[in-house]
Design goal:
Layout (H helix, E strand, L loop, with lengths): L8 E8 L6 E8 L6 E5 L9 H12 L3 E6 L1 H4 L8 H20 L7 E6 L1 H8 L1 H4 L4 E4 L23 E6 L15 E5 L11 H18 L1
Parallel strand pairs: 3-4, 3-5, 5-6, 6-7, 7-8
Antiparallel strand pairs: 1-2, 2-4
Helix pairs in contact: 1-6
C-alpha cells in the first residue's frame, strides 16, 4: 500500500484541547488549494494507521482533498480502552470544528466531510448535525454486536446529509444486506470487519469519487 505522504503534499501534527482532554490530528493536504477537507476517526481498537484509513487518505489526497486523521483523547493519554460514547462525541465535534476553522482561515469556502472506521464511523454519524459536515463516509460500520442482530445501531444511520458505507461482505458486525433500505452501502468483496484485502482499493476508489461529488455539490 502506498504511504500517505508524497510529493506535492504537506503534513503536520496538530494538538488541540477539548472538554474531555487533549486530542491530536495528523493533517495532510495538497500543496494546491484543497477541494475539501475530510476528517476521519479511528476504531475502538485505536489506530489512525489502519489499512482502510490509510487507503482512503491516500486516494483522497490524490483527488485534491485535504485529510485529517484524528486521535481521540483517550489514545493521546495512552489508554487502550475507549472513552464513553458521550466523551467521544464531544472530542470529535471539537476536532472537526478546530480543523475546519484552521483551513477555512485560508480557504473560507472550504467544505468539510467526516467519516471513520467502526466506532469512528458511529461517532461521525451521531455528531453530523453538530459538526455541520456535508457528507459522511462510514468504513466498517458496526451495525450490531457479533451474533446479536437484535441490538441494532441502525438509528445512528438516520442522518440528514449524504452517507456512504463501505462494508465487508463477511463483516460479523453486520453484512451489507442487513442495512436498512435507503442507506447507500458498497460491499467490499471478501472482506471482514478490517476491510483489508484485494478488493479494498476498488472500494476506496468508489468512495473517493462519491466524496468528491458530494463536496462539489454541497
Amino acid at each position: 500500500m502506498r504511504d500517505v505522504p508524497g510529493k506535492g503534499r504537506e503534513r503536520s501534527l496538530i494538538a488541540f484541547p477539548t472538554d474531555v482532554g487533549p486530542a491530536e490530528a495528523e493533517l495532510t493536504r495538497p500543496v494546491a488549494p484543497p477541494t475539501g477537507l475530510l476528517v476521519l476517526g479511528h476504531g475502538a481498537g485505536g489506530s489512525i494507521d489502519s489499512p482502510d484509513l490509510r487507503a482512503v487518505t491516500a486516494a483522497a489526497l490524490d483527488a485534491g482533498i485535504a485529510v485529517a486523521r484524528v486521535r481521540q483523547p483517550y489514545l493521546v493519554a495512552g489508554r487502550r480502552a475507549p472513552a464513553p460514547a458521550a466523551q467521544l462525541d464531544i472530542a470529535w465535534t471539537a476536532a472537526v470544528e478546530h480543523l475546519g476553522a484552521l483551513l477555512r482561515a485560508q480557504w473560507p469556502a472550504l467544505r468539510v466531510a467526516v467519516g471513520g472506521r467502526s466506532s469512528g464511523a458511529r461517532v461521525a454519524c451521531r455528531t453530523a448535525g453538530a459538526t455541520g459536515a456535508v457528507g459522511i463516509l462510514a468504513l466498517a460500520f458496526p451495525l450490531h454486536p457479533p451474533g446479536h442482530p437484535e441490538k441494532s445501531r441502525a438509528p445512528e444511520l438516520e442522518v440528514s446529509v449524504p452517507l456512504l458505507v463501505l462494508q465487508g461482505a463477511r463483516d460479523p458486525f453486520g453484512g451489507p444486506d442487513q442495512f436498512p433500505a435507503g442507506v447507500a452501502v458498497h460491499e467490499v468483496a471478501g472482506a471482514d470487519h478490517r476491510l483489508a484485502g484485494p478488493a479494498l482499493a476498488a472500494a476506496v476508489s468508489v468512495a473517493v469519487n462519491w466524496l468528491s461529488a458530494t463536496l462539489a455539490s454541497a
